[in-house]
Amino acid sequence: MVYDVYEMVIGLEVHVELKTETKIFCSCSTAFGAEPNTQCCPVCMGLPGALPTLNKKAVEYAIKAGLALNCDINRYTRMDRKNYFYPDLPKAYQISQYDLPLCKNGYVEIESSGKRKKIGITRIHLEEDAGKLIHDADAGTLIDCNRCGVPLIEIVSEPDIRSAEEAVTYVKSLRSILLYTGVSDVKMQEGSLRCDVNLSVRRRGDSMLGNRCELKNINSFRFIAEAIEYEFRRQVDAVERGELIVIETRRFDQNDGKTYAMRPKEDAGEYRFFPEPDIPAFLISDDYISKIAVELPMLPDAKKEMLMVKYGLTKYDAELLTENPSRCEYYEFAASKTNYPKILANIMISELTECACLPDAEMLAQICNFSGEERINSNTAKKLLTSLLNGDKRTPEDIIREENLEQISSVEALMPFVEEAIAGNQKSVNDYKAGKSAALKAIVGSVMRSTSGRANAVKVSEILADVLK
Length: 469
Ligand code: ADP
Ligand code: ZN
Ligand code: MG
Known about the structure:
Number of domains: 3
Structural class: alpha+beta
Helix content: 25-40%
Bound molecules: adenosine-5'-diphosphate, zinc ion, magnesium ion
Shape: elongated
Radius of gyration: 29 Å
Number of strands: 16
């Protein structure tokens, strides 16, 4: 296959909105979802004469993100003016950073196809978001300036990524780390995390980079993967035909999964960057950085290790439980209330992943205890969990007592049900005796039914194996 001779080279630019209360240069609210154009003022609209004031919280959050992503923090830094015209940017320039970004030389460690790998982070800079254009069939294109001036960080990776899987894993790791730091809510659907993919191809073994295309408008993990797979083949096909890859910005169309040329890639020179005259360059002290560093929580990778050691969880379980910090916190709290943290992990992973609103942790811990002590079987545990999720106010203990759900495990108590099941399933009994061990299942099932699901299935199998010897 011709595609096997080539490799893809990918670098990502990830834009993340910071969760500050107010915008980066004015005191307008950053709340998502307000009526269009109700959260703007002369500063974020860029009216003549209006002067910006840098939001200290935005600087703090950007540094926090940088520390969590293993970056060096520039002690001397500055905002720069990036000039361009686009209808979503009434000022006709964006205040960003150019050659002195807040953070540089970081990395994220990812695990893809079982291998660990570091993806370098070239730099993280602070900038303001632009407004949002709404294309309406009747009214034409409308502009909502509420987003103008919302603080953003742009996280630029080295071209270290070699597959769609690595790209997706990288963004997922970034998202999880940023969630833990609390600097952003990183919601792809709401656009608080947005991602541009830069991709080039080259023959395997070559050391020179090929010409890259920048893919925009990708707003889900699935689309990141689709856009990459499509663009890789498009570029390889072009190279194979002897064409030169045009360096350009392309748009991903989620309807047909293809990418389309939008515009030639602008050169940095065309933006006429210059130091922002309205905001003086500033110094960041070691003290200030240390203060932010001590506030950093334990990050997902370390958390994962901790859960594996402390609760004996598998790597897979620990990974799922640490994806989201609030779920992880819930797990740790509930785990402190039960002697069966593995049962708790199983329930959270198999029964509660889709569940937006987690049940009362102490009640859930009780269910785990009863389960672990074998007072109830897994059927009953599920039943109790359902009652809990449906808002049943009784404790699991009460429900077990009132509805007589205690597991039946003793041989004396089970024997009558076992005998009845043997009498009623002669065919299975004969099959089993003839060597079809799977036939036992039907007889166990019959006991489960006659006990309304309360029998200890393992015990029943043991008794049956013994009786039918
Ligand atoms: P721009 O704003 O012009 O897109 P940036 O420096 O912000 O430039 O981002 C460039 C991104 O493209 C980085 O993530 C970098 O790793 C990636 N990149 C640069 N050259 C290549 C290449 N030849 N192939 C793939 N990715 C590349
Ligand atoms: Zn404003
Ligand atoms: Mg770019």
